[in-house]
Structure formats: C-alpha cells, structure tokens
Amino acid sequence: MAKRLKIGITCYPTLGGSGVVATELGKLLAEKGHEIHFITHSIPFRLGQFHKNIYYHEVEVNDYYVFRYPPYDLSLASKMAQVAKMQQLDLLHVHYAVPHAVCAFIAKRMAGEGLRTVTTLHGTDITVLAQDESLKDLIRLAINESDAVTAVSNDLIQETRDLLDIDRRIELTYNFVDKRIYYPRDCASLRSDFAREDEKILMHISNFRPVKRVGDVVEIFAKVAEVVPSRLVLVGEGPDLPKIQCKIRNLGIEDKVHFLGKQDDVAQVISIADLMLLPSEKESFGLVALEAMACGVPTIGSFAGGIPELVTHGETGYLSPIGDTEDMAHNAIRLLSDRALYRQFQEACLHRATTQFCNDLITEEYERIYYNVLGIETNVPEPVCKS
Ligand code: GMT
C-alpha cells in the first residue's frame, strides 16, 4: 500500500443504495489497512459487528427551541471539521451531494485547506434535486468545490453536466458488489418457503417510490403468471406500498405474491429468484440489478438512466422502453421458458459481475482517486473507459 490514509465517510446510514455502497467501501478500505471514520447521524446499517480500522462519530443535532427546523446540515459540517482536525484526516469522502457535499465544503473551510474532499454522485441528488431551482446553484457550488467528483454511471455524468452546466472532470466509478457476499447460494430450503418446485420466482427490491414503477412490476408478473407458473416476491417498503397492495388485490393474484418488507441483508434472499424486475422510470445505476447479477440472476428492466451500462441487453437480461410491460413480460417468459438460454444468461451474469463490478477493482479505483487528490504517486493505472 502506498500510504495508509485516514478517511472520513459521510452517507445516508439508514437507507438506500448510496449508503450501502459507502459502507461497503469503508469496510473494504479498512480491510486494506486504511483508517475509516464514519461521520453520520446513526450507525450505518450495513456496518454490522466491530471492524478493525473503523471508527464511528455520531452527528448530534442541536434542537434549541428557537429552531423551527433543527439545523442538521450545520451540525454535520461542524462534526466533519472537528473529526478532521482531531483525527488528522487526509480527506472526506461524501456520498450523495445534498447536503453532504455542501457540508464537506464548509468543513474544509473550517478544518483548513490540507483536508481534501471527494464527492460521489449517486442519482437523485442530481436527477431530482438538481432540477429544483432553489437547490441548483448550491449543488453546482458543492460539486465545483470538491477536489474530486465521481458518479456511478456515464449517464449520471452526462445528466450532471447538462443540468448544472458543469464542465469540470467527473470520474466514472461504477458501483460494486463484494463477491464474498454476493454469489449463487444453495437456497433450496428457503426457496421452498415461497414456491413449489415447478414454479419460478420473480423478485423486486426497492424503496417503493414512484420512480421505481412498482405497479409495472405487478403488471409484468400478472402477465408472466398467466403463461409460466410463478410467484412474485416483493422486498422493501415505501410510499407506494398501499397502492401496490390494492393493485394486487384487484388483479386477484394475492395468493401468488409474498411481501418480505424491509430486509437489511438481501444477499441470501436474491439467490432464490429466477428473475429480478427493475422497470424504473429513473435509475442512475440500479445496485439491486448488480446484486442479482452477482448471484446469477438476470434482470428484466427498462432502458432508464444507467441501467443499460449495467445490464447488457440480450446477454445478462432484457431491457424495454419505460412502461412497456408487455415487452418486459414477453422477455421474461422467453427467458423462463428456455432452459439453455437461461443458463447462458446466468453464466454471462456471473462473468460480468466478477470481471467488471467486483469489489477489488472498484476499491482500487477509489484509492487511485484519493491518492490523486492528495498528490501521492501510485502505480495504479487509470482505466481507459473514463470520461
Ligand atoms: O433512489 C434514490 O434516491 C436513493 C439513491 C440511494 O441512496 O440509494 O439511489 C441512487 O443511488 C444508488 C447507489 O448508487 C443507485 O444504485 C440508484 O440507481 C440511484 N437511484 C436512482 O437513480 C433513482
């Protein structure tokens, strides 16, 4: 290792793929010998038990009675600066621009210019929040003031440039999965809790928000189930859940649908699926499709955002125009009805996940970015596919 770095990481600790990626990255960097300091409002849910080289600093919000809205962002910025000074951090790596990149900008001013900041854009921090005129200039400032900026797909890089009129360098760092956790597991016993041997399992995992189009998931499933004996397993919770439950009842398919609610660790459950459904309206990457790919499960999804950079249409899954549930169901039936084709897709999934999106590769990418902003020379070559 070139130099053991002291890195502060801030993310949303309790929800979403960005929190998962940030936490897993922190764990991997700690395994490589770096010292990691999570600065968040609660312990990241994927952190689990004690890890060597990992420290946690809780952000406490001052809720003095004059505040109508307790100023979390200011407390976070202050905590970042405090931890940076006390622990002599080399850099802060913040995941999700709002408010984390803005807080890092303030913290850097407070802690001194020696502290470097790296911002990773994850998706809705740009595709939704940067559309809001009241936030646009702030997000642009935070991005421009970061020492390095990364985004999880080329599509997100382009959208950031277009929406914010930014021409600074934004590096592509795809999301990753830990191959020691995501792999095809022997899950016959768990599988039998949900489906008979002759039935297929279609799965959807999300936060049940409108961008995920969970209604489409149900429609695709209903069409597939008319042709192929199958079950639908839904994992997650969110605002659209009651609407979805109603749709399932109206279609009369309640007995074929299982709701698992929120699950912190989906590695085990994904292995029971035959197909992952991801028909999103917006999706900068689609971490769940990668987790499925690593378990040998093809995805049926939409051409939204960065999904086509992850799912190779016709090789590791099939993609259709957003909302075209007819085509998605047709593709699902095709895959589920042709054993040889399905096996070919499974193999392509495993190959692609382990060669393009594996933890070793992407962790090294982030290390290269860190050393770069700190002006430390490394021998890690820059990949050719970068924008
Ligand atoms: O969907 C969100 O707003 C949450 C956000 C998150 O924190 O998980 O999701 C985004 O980041 C993920 C991790 O990089 C990506 O896999 C998701 O595609 C992205 N969500 C969207 O673009 C809608």
Explain this structure.
- It is a single chain.
- This protein has helices spanning 16-31, 72-87, 100-111, 124-127, 133-145, 154-164, 188-191, 214-227, 241-250, 267-270, 287-294, 307-310, 325-337, 339-356, 359-373; strands spanning 6-10, 35-40, 54-58, 91-95, 116-121, 148-151, 171-172, 200-205, 230-235, 257-261, 275-278, 299-302, 317-320.
- The protein starts with 5 loop residues before the first strand and ends in a 14-residue tail after the last helix.
- It has 387 residues and is an alpha/beta fold.
- The protein contains 15 helices and 13 strands.
- Helix 2 (72-87) packs across helix 3 (100-111) and helix 11 (287-294) crosses helix 14 (339-356).
- The protein folds into two domains: 6-176 and 358-374, Rossmann fold (3-Layer(aba) Sandwich); 188-356, Rossmann fold, CATH 3.40.50.
- The site of ligand GMT has 20 residues, from helix 1 and helix 4.
- Ligand GMT is lined by residues 12, 16-18, 21, 96, 122-124, 127, 152, 175, 211, 282-287, 305.
Primary descriptors:
binds ligand GMT; Rossmann fold; 387 residues; 13 strands
